[in-house]
Design brief:
Arc Repressor Mutant, subunit A; about 190 residues; elongated; mainly alpha; Tetracycline Repressor, domain 2; 2 domains
């Protein structure tokens, strides 16, 4: 793929994600995406045949990164608590970097897509797998819930903290502080 083609795909993904989040997935047409980009529908179809293809394309990249974290977490740790914190910190880096928060905001605002498209179902499965890795070696419902809520502390920081003056770095640190409190309690330590 040429650099220009790659840049066009990335622009399409970015604009589509923006429109899907602003207007909703169902209410956004391929024509609107093409118009906002200033290209013809035919040019858009060259890269993506449907809105589902666009969603799948930006989710695939996130799935690859989540798979890397899951693989890292599956390796036997020397220090379980340190590994949990490292995994969560890397997840937060992914979430606050590039388009991570935009993708999660898209899914938050388009729940039917999360439930109906394979890409949404795969995202959900990977996040649950990551929570399982974070909870390891504990497999109690309490440990699973704490690990899952630790991930959601990172996600929800994007819309739960409504202070306009807060920076992304401060938001990330607050999310990790709360998430670490949850993770640290998995093994029963206060």
């Amino acid at each position: 793929m040429s650099e220009n083609t790659g840049n066009t795909r990335a622009r399409i993904q970015s604009v589509a994600l923006e429109l899907f989040t602003e207007q909703g997935y169902e209410k956004t047409s391929l024509r609107e995406i093409a118009e906002r980009l200033g290209v013809t529908k035919a040019a858009l179809y060259y890269h993506f045949k449907s809105k589902d293809d666009i969603v799948n394309s930006f989710v695939e990249d996130r799935l690859d990164r989540l798979d890397g974290l899951i693989k890292m977490g599956a390796e036997p740790p020397v220090d379980v608590a340190a590994r949990r914190r490292e995994l969560l910190s890397r997840y937060a880096d992914e979430f606050f970097g590039s388009t991570g928060h935009s993708v999660m905001r898209f899914f938050d605002q388009n729940q039917t897509v999360l439930k109906s498209l394979p890409a949404g179902q795969m995202m959900r499965e990977r996040l649950l797998q990551l929570a399982t890795v974070l909870a390891w070696p504990q497999d109690s419902p309490t440990a699973q819930l704490r690990a899952t809520l630790a991930l959601f502390a990172v996600h929800s920081s994007w819309f739960a903290i409504r202070s306009p003056e807060i920076t992304d770095a401060q938001r990330r640190e607050l999310a990790l502080e709360i998430a670490h409190e949850l993770l640290d309690r998995i093994d029963g330590t206060p």
